[in-house]
Amino acid sequence: MGTQLIIDTDPGVDDAFAITLAALGTDVDLLGVTTVFGNVPLAATTRNAQRVLALCGRADVPVAAGAERPLVYPHPHRARYAHGVDGLSGRAEALPEPARELAQVDAVNLLVTLLEAAQEPVTIAPIGPLTNIAALLAAHPGVRSKIDRLVIMGGGLSLGNVTPAAEFNIWSDPEAARRVLVEDEVPAVLVPMDLTVRCAVDADWLGTLRASGPIGAALDALTPDYRDYYRKALGWDGTVLHDAVAVAEAISPGILETERLPIEVDCTPGPSRGATVVDRRRIEVAERAETSSVVDVAVDTDLDGLRGFVLGRLTRGAGDRP
Predict the structure, then answer these.
(1) Of these four, 62, 180, 220, 298, which has the most CB atoms within 10 Å of its CB?
(2) Which residues form the Inosine/uridine-preferring nucleoside hydrolase domain (predicted)?
(3) DSSP assignment of 219-285, as one string?
(4) What's the pTM?
């Protein structure tokens, strides 16, 4: 049995790549997928997750819908500027219809059921806002022992994308992010956009994926709006698969280099709301509150190796399925 994994997600183009990376892996036991508001509203993120799993031939994987809004404040806007009106560059309906009905329980209840049934600790990869995970840990603290670690795509050490200070996933629900990253004690790896942007892939990479088979071609077909956005953001013809980088670490622990760092999440209403603040000063001089939380923050990787890892798994998997 491979890595036991649950993905909590808000698809999203990069989420679609991340789900596929796990769904095609023969060394991954994908137990379930839960959805959350984020890049687009909950109904769309849920439908997108179901369609991506259908593309991968994974009718065995249950999907449950979760939070439709943040814990405290309304979500100011979606990410249509990058992901398109439906989250998948306006091309969601080109994917297969869902092959399995939506679970009749909500995301938190599905998470509890899957964790309690697992024979060994499970990795959870939250790659959207952390609302579902915060609710899970608050309402069901007994499941902590069944979680091996959280591998979270979110935050920025030195930059943001939705604001100069904040990355989209954390900014979408800072109170939930603080509950998970600062107030809880579940082992966590935070994969920030500082690193995921460095892992950007180019047109040749996408061309190889497109030529690999029906799944690769379908994934590439979801990227036009996203790719247009990243041409502007990067200044060259490439795209950033943020969430796939986190899922790569979830299924291949150690593919990313990490540092244990104290962390805070800014929940104030000012211009730094949603910022992840890590203390990289030497411990001998850093003045930290006793309540400071320490998480493993991904800071580096073999960039070409990471790109090759993701591409190799997607293309091999794409060739194995019709």
Answers:
(1) 180
(2) 5-304
(3) HHHT-HHHHHHHHHHHSSSEE--HHHHHHHHHHSTTSEEEEEEEEEE--SSSTTTT-EEE--S-TTT
(4) 0.95
